[in-house]
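Subject: two folds for Thursday's group meeting

Dear M.,

Sorry for the delay on this. The cluster queue was jammed most of the week, so I only got both jobs back this morning. I'm pasting them in the order they finished. Each block is the input sequence followed by the predicted structure tokens. Could you check whether the formatting survives your parser before we put anything on slides? The first protein is the one we discussed after the seminar.
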Amino acid sequence: MGMPYALGAVGARTALALMAPLALAGAALASSRVAHTVGRNLVEHTPTRLGWLVVVAAAFAVTGLYNRVRVPTSTIQILVGSLVGEALAAGSGVQWHTVAVLVAVWVAAPFAACAIGFGGGKLLRRVERVGFALVAVGCVASFAMGGNDVANASGALVGPRVLGAHAAGALCGAGIALGVVVTGRPLLDRVAFEIVEVDRVSATAAQLVQALVVLAAVAFGFFTSMNQALVGAMAGAGSARGRNAVRRRTLAGIVRGWALGPPSAFALAFAVAHVVHWGGGSLAN
């Protein structure tokens, strides 16, 4: 909802009020395949509940640290790095083929979004009254966020069979919705005013492309970075209208986050899991 808010198509309170239930709906209805990928398909032996606690705690710590120093990262990529680190420390095999496919999706998504965004920008270049359309695609992106991002938490419940995929999605989606309402305003402001410079046409094309790229990945049980997809789409849509929509500093930050986030999470989870293992904790089923 950052783009509709930035361009005055919707107010901040309305944006958050729309985003929260739509993210919950996406988590409850569209996240089951992604939750299975995270919970069951990335490592050979599913971590125990203690192992999942290590995974989530390490991912949370790394994400919190980089947020604190304002280095943009992907929580999804961090979670996968943390899970791989825990698995190797526990002596469990990693399904490297699935990890490789995920990495390929992460790399391809911004470029695919850029290419499709360029086409969308060309198609919409003569449309100027797009306020309603901009809010509508923001709603689609909110739904996509729920389906894509909830596996950061729900995978830890699906893996050890604490809850089924749909129940875990609904529960963790409620957490996303609460987070949107309680803490979403500062991030809404940041996305709206600090990342890109856009007009309504470019924003509409880019936000729609972002949502479609992410939903396509989710449909196949994969997940990718919402922010990277959006920036790729913005670059394409802006170029179609003869504008450089994305700030170089933003691009540099994304590359830095890509380079630092997953390895940091891997190292921390690997170290913590070793300590827990030496202490007699069971980490793998």
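Second protein, same layout:
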Amino acid sequence: MSETSNTISVHIKKHLFPYILLAVLLLVNIPVFIELVGDWLRDGNYSHGFLIIPISVFLFYRRRQELQFPAPTCRSGLLFFVLGCVGLIFGVAATEFFTTRFSLVLAVTGLGLYYLGLANFRKVWFAFFFLLFMIPIPAIIYYSATMPMQLFATKATNSILHVVGVPSHREGNIIYLPAYTLEVSEACSGLRSLTTLLALAALVGYLTLTGTLRPIVLFLSAFPIAVGVNIFRLLFTAVGAYAVSPRIAESFLHQLSGILVFVLALIIMMLLAGVLRWTKSLSE
């Protein structure tokens, strides 16, 4: 025990400067964390944010044995740290939340790069990258993407309804059925589940796939998967309202379908990851 305590003490003394910088950075940005947690609580789109930091810490911890010290510091890390601090100052001054939060992650990443050195940082870079998924999408991007995704989901659902023999008429993001009017709201655009699916795809790809191309393919697959399962949900709601009862579109079953569709998206993603691993084994 005394030997372990002595090792920790020597380590802290040797790397005291980066620890002081990290502590000061986190203390100064407590208000930023409070606002961020508030967004996670208020907006179900980003409730996964509570898991991001613990997962990032775990990802770093699981590769701790691979880090080699002493390691030469990487001066470019200080550049990223300074840029992050400048971004924090301007973000707070302009009350621009995304800039502030992104700059905080950039500053922490820069500090990690400086302290760990380039060779060590390459082994744990994903733990720092994964922190980005705790940041809500900027409002201007969110609302710019929502309407096109709403319209696409509405058009696709209406076209499939015609194929399966359900009479329907579309005007904008509204589908008119014989006894029911289905409005495709922002929550039904597919963007709600996309943010969480992107984080999960990145994590699954990093943990289960090797190489560079396959994890990227899995990550990008989150976009069509999110859109596809959302169209399936709208189709299920429309067919249920037409063939069974309009109450299906407004009842607990509609809310439950959102959960089931998300589970379906996870299953599809895991199957795709399995296929990508299989293709890797065939090429070896």
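Two things I noticed about the second structure. The chain has two domains: 2-134, 140-283. Residues 75 and 114 are 6 Å apart (CA to CA).

Cheers,
T.
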